[in-house]
Amino acid sequence: MVKIPSPFTNHLRRWLPFRCFGCGEPGLMLHHGLCPWCRRALPGLQQGCPLCAEPLTVSQLCHQCLRRRPPLAGCQALWLYQQPLQRLIAQMKYPGDAPLTRVMAKAALPLLPPLTADLSLIPIPLHPKRQAERGFNQAQLLCEEWSKALNITTEPLLVRTQDTPHQAGLKAAARRRNLRRAFAVSGEVKGLRLVLVDDVMTTGSTLFAAARVLRAAGAAEVRALVLARTPLDRRTGILG
Ligand SMILES: [Zn+2]
Ligand SMILES: [Zn+2]
Question: If you measure from the C-alpha of residue 33 to the centroid of ligand 1, how many angstroms do you get, rounded to a whole number?
């Protein structure tokens, strides 16, 4: 193979129109917006607790779920909430950075579990005030991309009725109290099989609160699917 002299390569790269969303480097080999190096660097989650996706070395219920069963029929996280993903997810929430969320949704496609057409995706809603500040809801964008790719529906059947204060430093029971009236159902969910979608799952309290509201309204089954799961030893600055 002919080796192209590096000054020439560098000159050529400057003219490439595409830049990796992860490292900002220009490149031709961008797959849905991420270069091969950034894609390989995303921290995979091999196995976790089937009900809360807590990362574990063997697939079994974690001790938290054994002690207190979550209201989910299943939960899957696609990556671990670690660098460089942590930085990308923080960037996803910048006002106006909706394209990065779509990039991450597409990068996650090969990792998605099989989702049958009788399931519907439900994005964890933002409070209207927060959504107006950001300009979009990242969970809604994830649902839109996955709906298109998998040919399943997205049903915005939940609304956020309270702008929940940050949960940092709150104990589990206080977090549950904090979220008790955070969500309301905005349509008919009786008998439906639903998959709640969010970007990050920290303690699970947000997803569990949403699932409780849907189950109480008659949903037949509620599962969860998240981009990233924060492992137990890193849960400081808790958001939910
Ligand atoms: Zn990159
Ligand atoms: Zn668990």
Answer: 8
Check whether residue 13 and residue 58 sit in a common domain: no
Q: Pick the closest to residue 227 from 152, 131, 141 (CA basis).
A: 141
Nearest ligand for residue 24 CA: 1
Ion ligand 1 residue ranges (Cβ < 5 Å): 20, 22-23, 35, 38
Measured in angstroms, how far is the CA atom of residue 39 from the centroid of ligand 1? 7
Cα(188) to ligand 1 centroid in Å equals 43
Tell me, yes or no, whether 189 and 211 share the same domain: yes
Residues by chain with Cβ below 5 Å of ion ligand 2: 49, 51-52, 54, 62, 65
Q: What is the pTM of this model?
A: 0.86
User: Residue 18, SS3?
Assistant: coil
Q: Are residues 78 and 24 in the same domain?
A: no
Position 118 in a domain: yes
**Residue 26's domain spans which residues?**
1-41
Residues with Cβ < 8 Å from 119, sequence gap 6 or more? 152, 193, 194, 195, 223
Number of domains present in the structure of the chain: 2
Q: What is the pLDDT along the chain (240 residues), one digit of tens a residue?
A: 444 445 555 555 555 567 888 888 887 666 678 888 888 888 888 889 999 999 988 878 999 999 999 999 999 999 999 988 998 999 888 887 888 899 899 999 999 998 999 999 999 999 999 899 999 999 999 999 999 999 999 999 999 998 876 666 667 777 777 787 899 999 999 999 999 999 999 989 999 999 999 999 999 999 999 999 998 765 554 444
